[in-house]
């Protein structure tokens, strides 16, 4: 530790001179990089939060086709937005993007503001997203720090401490602002993110191919993975749930969720807990057919899936054919439960 404390933090300009040509030569050809449209950048940055690039690309393409402008999204009903987002998860992002688009129309006549304060004042746009839109689309000298940048900067500069805690968080944003203070802030911001995404991985970083390897404190110390020094996360709690797949022929009973997690999206009847209490509603004998584990940020849901036949009118929601669900606002958990129940049903059919 004492030895590493003596290693000098590299000069920001020297690192930038390595990163910029590396980024120009090695940047992945992502569709949103082909346009400098602030709306396209905004959508990509929101989708990329907590989601992998390969997953985002088809969603981004479909979303931009359906909502090519901020006004197109602002004018759309929420159901349409959630339907296009369906399967991407973290639906709060879609709702906030929708609210942000409406605010651009209401406050700025449909023109995305070209200044960081105006961007940050929009619903769902924090420092990171304002930094991304501002620097990439408008060339503003505004910084951004996401998980990739946090890892790259703590390693390059040997920054100790928990980046989620205020002192290092502030230091990271100040350092990122020094990086962004140059003629092409969008390129340097993206090069820091790209290095983290493709070379400076959380485990086994590929230091030998890194353009800044001889400047990097963590590599010179010999243990890059020690950065960032995160304090352990709060434990994820395990929750027991039950789900009911109630069928009427090929249709299943779904209803708008009253759970905050999937507010107003379509779920099968679900209840927390375990036990043999009868299900409310027009369903007779039920059989347990599968177990599903669904992991959220703060909870691991262990869901016992039951199946039964409907024997009357459903009191809430409606009956949906499976094909119709492909185009509906259905969260991943519903799809997982139905797939588990279908798998069981499929096996039973095959056995018949
Ligand atoms: S040298 Fe290694 S640890 Fe340092 S920035 Fe490059 S990839 Fe990351």
What does this protein structure show overall?
It is built from 15 helices and 7 strands. Strands 1, 2, 3, 4, 5, 6 and 7 form a 7-stranded mixed sheet that branches. The radius of gyration is 24 Å and the shape is globular. The chain has 352 residues and is an alpha+beta fold. It has 2 domains: 2-226, Endonuclease III, domain 1; 237-351, Alpha-Beta Complex (Nucleoside Triphosphate Pyrophosphohydrolase), CATH 3.90.79.10. Iron/sulfur cluster binds at residues 152, 155-156, 199-200, 205, 207, 210, 212-213, 216, 218-219, 224.
How many domains? The number is: 2
Stretches with pLDDT under 50, minimum 5 residues: 344-352
Q: Per the principal axes of the C-alpha atoms, what is the gross shape? A: globular
Question: Approximately what portion of the residues adopt beta-strand conformation?
Answer: 5-15%
- Sheet of most strands: 7 strands, mixed
Query: What is the mean predicted local confidence, pLDDT?
Result: 91
């Amino acid at each position: 530790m004492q030895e590493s404390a003596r290693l000098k933090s590299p000069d920001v300009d020297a690192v930038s001179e390595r990163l910029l040509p590396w980024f120009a030569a090695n940047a992945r050809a992502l569709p949103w990089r082909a346009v400098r449209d602030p709306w396209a950048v905004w959508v990509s940055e929101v989708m990329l939060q907590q989601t992998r690039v390969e997953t985002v690309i088809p969603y981004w393409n479909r979303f931009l086709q359906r909502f090519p402008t901020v006004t197109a999204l602002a004018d759309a009903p929420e159901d349409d937005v959630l339907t296009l987002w369906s399967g991407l998860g973290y639906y709060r992002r879609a709702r906030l993007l929708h609210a942000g688009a409406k605010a651009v129309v209401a406050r700025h006549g449909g023109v995305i503001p070209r200044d960081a304060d105006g961007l940050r004042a929009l619903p769902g746009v924090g420092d990171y997203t304002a930094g991304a839109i501002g620097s990439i689309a408008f060339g503003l000298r505004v910084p951004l720090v996401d998980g990739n940048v946090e890892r790259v900067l703590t390693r390059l500069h040997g920054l100790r401490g928990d980046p989620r805690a205020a002192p290092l968080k502030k230091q990271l944003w100040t350092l990122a602002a020094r990086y962004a203070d140059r003629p092409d802030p969008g390129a340097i911001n993206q090069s820091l993110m790209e290095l983290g995404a493709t070379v400076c991985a959380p485990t086994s970083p590929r230091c030998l191919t890194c353009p800044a390897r001889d400047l990097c404190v963590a590599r010179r110390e010999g243990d890059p993975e020690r950065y960032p020094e995160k304090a352990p996360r709060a434990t994820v709690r395990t929750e027991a749930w039950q789900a009911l797949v109630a069928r009427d022929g090929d249709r299943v009973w779904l209803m708008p969720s009253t759970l905050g997690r999937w507010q107003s999206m379509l779920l099968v009847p679900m209840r927390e807990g375990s036990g043999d209490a009868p299900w409310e509603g027009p369903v007779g004998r039920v059989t347990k057919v599968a177990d599903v584990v669904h992991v959220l940020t703060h909870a691991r849901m262990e869901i016992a899936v039951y199946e039964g036949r409907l024997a009357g009118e459903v009191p809430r929601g409606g009956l949906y054919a499976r094909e119709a669900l492909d185009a509906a606002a259905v969260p991943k958990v519903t799809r997982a439960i139905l797939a588990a129940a279908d798998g069981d049903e499929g096996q039973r059919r095959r056995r018949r």
